[in-house]
Structure formats: structure tokens, C-alpha cells
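As a point of orientation, let us examine one representative protein, giving the amino acid sequence and C-alpha cells.
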Amino acid sequence: MKVLIDTHVLLWWMRDDRRLTKRASEMIRNPENQIVISAVVSWEIAIKTSVGKIKPASIVVDVQDLIASQTFEALPITVEHTVRTGLLPLHHRDPFDRMLIAQAQIEGLAVISGDAAFDPYEVYRIW
């Protein structure tokens, strides 16, 4: 299965945080699954790090290293993704999550997220 990871999931994975569900952790560990990290995730981490919401600041570089060291696939943001984001109904206003939703819809990806705000958008959410 091809799976897109939400920002909090990636951070919890990196920190071995117990808030990450067993199911989510197993999905990420399973070598049969293709794990996808959107550029919007590193962008969100960079922004939240710069304003002090996420620490330490080195986590931005750690994300890049993690993608390179794991068999994770980086997903760039395309014009098609941005257009879809703008056309989504406003069930949810978080711009980072809206981009993940648009990418999941266009690329046919499931999403690992604890955020139920994804559910009205008809993406397959794993938690």
C-alpha cells in the first residue's frame, strides 16, 4: 500500500513517541508499504520550528536525513496539487492538512493521521 504520512505522525515516528498507534507504526515498518513524505510536511516543520512551536531546530535537517536514510519517498508539491487544495470544501482550514488531502486524492494515497478532520474529504485514513 502507498501511504502518505501526516506531520505529527512523522515527528512521533522520529521520536519513538508512544502516541503513535500500534497500527500506524506497523504500517510504517511494513516493507511492503511504500511510505510517502510530502514536501508540505517538511515545510510545516520548518515553519513551526522557526516560530518555536517545534524544538529542536535541527529537526528540519533530521527530516531530510530520515527521508534519505529510510526507504521513504519524497512527494513534491505540484501545480495540480495546489489547484486541488484551493477547490476543496472548507471542512478544514489548516493549509498543510489541506495540501496533504489534495495530494492523497490526486495520487491515490492512504493517509496515516490521528486527525479526524481528514475524514470528510473521502481519503482513506489509517489510525
About this structure: The mean pLDDT is 94. Residues 2-126 form a domain with the Rossmann fold fold (CATH 3.40.50.1010). The CA atoms of residues 35 and 72 lie 5 Å apart.
